[in-house]
Amino acid sequence: MLGVTAVAVVGVASLGAYNLYTGLTGGNESPGHDGPVTASEVRTTAHDFLAAWADRNDLRASQLTNDAASAVAALSGYRKDGHVSKLTLKAGRAQGTQVPFDVTADISYQGTRSTWTYASELTVVRGRTTGRPLVDWTPAVLHPKLTAERPALRTGLAETVSVKVVDRDGQELTEDHYPSLGPVLTQLRKRYSAATGASGRIEVWAAGASGKPATTLHVVSKGKRGTLHTTLDARVQSRAEEAVAKRTGASVVALKPSTGEVLAVANSDRTEFNPAFQGATAPGSTFKIVTSAALLESGEVTPGRAVPCPKTISYQQGMTFHNVEDSENPSATFAQDFAASCNTAFVSLAGDLSDGAVADEAREVFGIGLSWHVGVETFDGSVPTGGGDDKAAALIGQGKVQMNPLTVASVAATAQTGAFRQPVIVPRSLISEKKATAERSLSPAAVQQLKSMMRLTATSGTAARAMAGLTGDIGAKTGSAEIDGQPTTNAWFTAYRNDMAAAAVVTQGGHGGDAAGPVVRDVLASHG
């Protein structure tokens, strides 16, 4: 046996007993000899090389090889890229010019530690120009499985963190079964994988030029799959997927009014952008739920008050507003205006509200425009304050009002229960940010009046066809939003049924009840 054991620990490499000049030139060593290396030279060279390598003296170790440039880079990379924090080398009995040795390497990667042991060997040869005994350098000296094609040793994540996302009942949700959830699942795994205790598989591998995992040399950690619970309902999600798949540009969201928990989110367009949560566009007449709440709470109007519905109207001599298909009803009540989605009737009431009244109602009661923390990225609505044409347009969900199916579904849920509950898609305990809280609830009288108008819309108004046959506590509102540059309006529909509220938009779908209504109906019908 050579009887050499060398140990290196983390720290600044020192040249030890060798100064820089000695490491580079061999110092005052006597010139080499001709002929085969001797047994003594084999033992001494192997001893010195292993001692320098273990002592983190890569410069000295490389000068004891016949390819110093390659060796010094490989030895340095072994520790750095291999994340070797401690190295023990023990030489065995030489067999001619070959010396076997045992390696014990302590690996430390992102807080995970592992001890790696393996056997390797080196060969001592006579230097062709110096005549000195030198280690014949190849990548295999570091590890037998390192080759010219795969000369580098790497430690890292061979497999990324694996997180199983499940619905409220523990059923797994995957992109294959629920393609709309692709961007949502990606965000959820990124945000909450640590909370599930999940960890990736860490390996040491032999790598080529790309550095990517190739031949596995050692498993540092097998990794652990995590499980992330959500508020989603697989049955509702499945129905939502089927509903949006029938139309181009369709998005839908369903949630529980009693808790704000999101039950489903689906988009017909398969992109990384999630318009159901992140979209920002005019909601059309679905916003009349908020406008009506402001009018009812102001005391200026009641469901039974006569509010004529002319074909056209202008506010303060500004732009002219009209109804879909230029409909009119001179003897309509406010409830009938709501059920028929009469734009002109609502514009005629603009003078009964201050310029900031609707924006205040949206924020203080419905939580629109507050900072929501749902669990994934969302746009939480915007209702600017303005007068003149901007004010009139805002009353009917046009102009600068910006929302999406998530915020519109939340509006319907708030109308049903009278209280805003910020939507969430994961348990609230996982969300570190403070949830959004509305300043006040809708007054009890306004809740009763608003629900009666939404039920009228669902049973005999513009939403009746889509809601036909649905029983229980129901209410709905349709919308058709004009968008600059589009020849056809965006179709909107929102409704609630018992403890589920949903909203959908179909880009350039036309009438809300015809295009978006069936999407919402299919979702609401998924539960009893």
Radius of gyration in whole Å, from Cα?
36 Å
- How much strand? 15-25%
Shape: rod-shaped
Q: If helices are DSSP runs of H or I spanning 4 or more residues, what is the number of helices? A: 17
- Spatial sequence of strands, sheet with the most strands: 1-2-3-4-5
Taking the sheet with the most strands, its summary is: 5 strands, antiparallel
Distance between the termini: 81 Å
How many β-strands, per DSSP? 17
> Which structural class fits the helix and strand makeup?
alpha+beta
Q: Kindly state the mean pLDDT as a whole number?
A: 92
Unreliable residue runs: 1-30
Q: What is the helical fraction, as a range of percent?
A: 25-40%
Condensed summary:
This protein has 528 residues and is of the alpha+beta class. It has helices spanning 20-25, 39-54, 58-62, 68-80, 182-192, 234-245, 275-278, 288-298, 334-340, 343-348, 357-364, 388-395, 405-417, 444-460, 464-467, 512-515, 517-524, and strands spanning 5-9, 84-91, 98-109, 112-126, 133-135, 152-159, 163-166, 201-207, 215-221, 226-229, 250-255, 262-267, 312-314, 320-322, 474-481, 490-497, 500-506. The chain has 17 helices and 17 strands.
